[in-house]
Amino acid sequence: AYTWYRRQRNTQPIYRNPGAWFVLRYEDVKTVLQNHATFSSQPDEKRGNPTNPLRSSILSLDPPRHHQLRGLVQQVFTPRAIARLESRIEENVHHFLNQVSPQGKMDVITDLAFPLPVLIIAELLGVPFEDREQFKHWSRNLFEGNPSLIASTQQEMKTYFLQQMKNRLQEPKDDVLTALLHAEVEGEHLSENELAAFCILLLAAGHETTSDLIGNAFYCFLEYPEVFEELQAHPEGIPAAIEEMLRYYSPVKTLPRYATQDVVLGEQPIRAGEMVCPFFASANRDETQFPDADTFNIHRTPNRHLAFGAGIHACLGAPLARLEAKIALKIVLDRFGRLSLDRSMPLQLKSSSVVFGLKQLPIFFL
Ligand code: HEM
């Protein structure tokens, strides 16, 4: 994909794919993200993209409702609430690593990158971690399924979360579900649809993407073993390395927008109602913004990547994702001497058009 992005940036940076315009250059992607009035996140029924799993969540809403609901999540996602999770993340990284084979073999995705973020988001929401296999299944359906599977999965998730909330009515807890249930916007509680969409978004957005970040980080270590060694000697470089990992292998490739009026982007006329896909992953390899963009360089400054988006929909979970990755990598660098790819097993990329990550990443470690 990266070779294709590069070619398109140089030849047809706003590319007509059937059903959507693909926007590939950094400046154009930024323009789309920062002009929510022209490039709306809200699909209407006629022009809507039925494969967007999160259509009734804040991700797919425009102001003013977007602004009102986003304010609510900001109240629950305070820096204090995130910092409180720090010791839980540490404990769990150790716990997951203690489970892996003493012969020095593991599958990074199954053994660490997948279960860690699910556990943390389940804890934040307040739903039982025992339901994780169910979450995993739902999440795969949402990101890789066909439109009817996506619709039925959303329905199942809605039923599940509304049931969980009903339990909270009887037995309130100190968790996000209870907080959302009692939250009011302009004197009114959220609708059932909004409540369910929130939970689906937090679970899906908070888990698949962070798993991909951690998996992709290991992949970078395998590709660049010298970086692994450098960070072992200088763990203070981990946060900057994570930013470069986010840029180099961006977990979210693109999310759709819809033109609200006729507009010219770059030199390309776009008509009202057409779908426009800003490619974060391509913007993050744009040479005009990042010299030697295809080189992985953990000392890159500045590194104004768009892996978490920009504008009014910029990722709300970025501090949590960064914290999980930082703790996981720090412990791995501390506990493992060296990593190598287990070539006896296939390395598989996810087939999703939205997220970029590995299905499995078998490794040996010393
Ligand atoms: C929005 C990426 C982790 C919650 C976004 C957007 C991107 C993104 C690109 C913007 C979408 C758009 O412009 O249409 C990522 C990546 C992550 C990550 C790469 C991990 C490495 C998380 C986590 C959570 C989260 C851990 C929550 C626990 C959200 C929410 C939004 C969002 C609620 C919607 C914000 C809005 O529409 O106002 N994320 N995300 N994300 N993210 Fe994340």
What report would you give on this structure?
- By secondary structure, the chain is of the alpha+beta class.
- The chain has one domain (2-365): Cytochrome p450 (Orthogonal Bundle).
- It contains 15 helices and 14 strands.
- Strands 1-2-10-7-3 form a 5-stranded mixed β-sheet. Strands 4-14-11 form a 3-stranded antiparallel β-sheet. A two-stranded antiparallel sheet has the order 5-6.
- Strand 1 (14-17) and strand 2 form a beta hairpin.
- Helix 5 (86-99) packs across helix 15 (318-335) and helix 11 packs across helix 12.
- The longest helix has 32 residues, at 192-223.
- The two termini are 32 Å apart.
- The relative contact order is 0.19.
- Mean pLDDT is 91; it is low at 46-53.
- The structure holds protoporphyrin IX containing FE.
- Protoporphyrin IX containing FE binds next to helix 3, helix 11 and helix 15.
Write down the overall geometry: globular
Count the DSSP helices: 15
Helix/strand-derived category reads alpha+beta
The third-level CATH topology is: Cytochrome p450
